[in-house]
Write a structure and sequence with these properties.
36% of the residues lie in helices and 10% in strands. The protein is α+β, with helices and mostly antiparallel strands and 240 residues long. It has a three-stranded antiparallel beta sheet with strand order 3-5-4. Strand 4 and strand 5 form a beta hairpin.
Length: 240
């Protein structure tokens, strides 16, 4: 959308902006109206929009992917991520720069959050800060039921035998969505993120020492061979 100033005109009584001196450095271009703005709806702040997406994302989100989601240039998304990261680290404040309102975010600076925005595998994702990791892990474990569902057991078996394996590969094997089950297993401390796929950036999961302890084995090499446990495929056929 083009404003009157963009078109070269100014409202009655408004002064034209001062001319820049020769060689004066041009400041960053700041958007007032963006694709996030919907007529008749409150204006959406870019930083808050990215924050909302990252909050519900289970996998690291690349800058290009985020830019496509909010219909904004990649450069603006990178700047917004930098503001969010500084905000959570307590060294800055987030909120898209505005040219139509005064800066009211200065008072929010200096609050270091218990989580951080971390770049992993070419994307961005929220993580608990290292100093709170043990506390959160203990909380999750004490809040969890001791019994795993059948779906969780099946997913855990897939990870144990196929690790390292991505969430999408697990879903392909089980032919169901496994997002919530993987979160449950992560919360129980039975699986962990071990690597990222070099091509897709997807997180690869593997089992933990806790699982080995619960199973009473020293390594996954001691897991029973799976082939004798599989159906021989003869079901439904008459055998001589």
């Amino acid at each position: 959308m083009t404003t009157e100033a963009d078109a070269g005109g100014f409202r009655d009584g408004a002064d034209a902006p001062p001319q820049r001196a020769a060689g004066e450095e041009r400041g960053p271009e700041l958007s007032i109206v963006t694709p996030l703005d919907v007529p008749g709806q409150p204006r959406l702040d870019l930083d808050r929009a990215l924050e909302a997406i990252l909050f519900i994302a289970d996998e690291p989100q690349g800058v290009v992917q985020l830019a496509a989601a909010v219909a904004r240039p990649v450069a603006e998304v990178r700047a917004a991520i930098a503001r969010l990261k500084a905000d959570y680290d307590g060294t800055g404040t987030s909120g898209e720069p505005r040219t139509d309102v005064a800066d009211e975010g200065a008072a929010a600076r200096g609050i270091r959050r218990g989580f951080e925005l971390r770049e992993v595998g070419g994307g961005w994702r929220f993580y608990v800060r290292a100093e709170y990791d043990t506390l959160v892990a203990d909380f999750v474990l004490t809040q969890s039921s001791s019994t795993l569902s059948q779906a969780a057991l099946e997913t855990l078996a897939v990870i144990a035998y196929k690790q390292p394996i991505s969430r999408s590969s697990i879903a392909a094997i089980r032919a169901v969505n496994v997002d919530s089950v993987v979160r449950t297993l992560l919360g129980r401390g039975l699986i962990t993120e071990v690597d990222t796929d070099a091509e897709t950036g997807a997180i690869l999961y593997g089992t933990t020492e806790l699982l080995l302890t619960n199973l009473g084995i020293n390594s996954v090499d001691e897991l029973p061979h799976i082939s004798p446990l599989l159906d021989d495929g003869q079901g439904g056929f008459d055998l001589d």
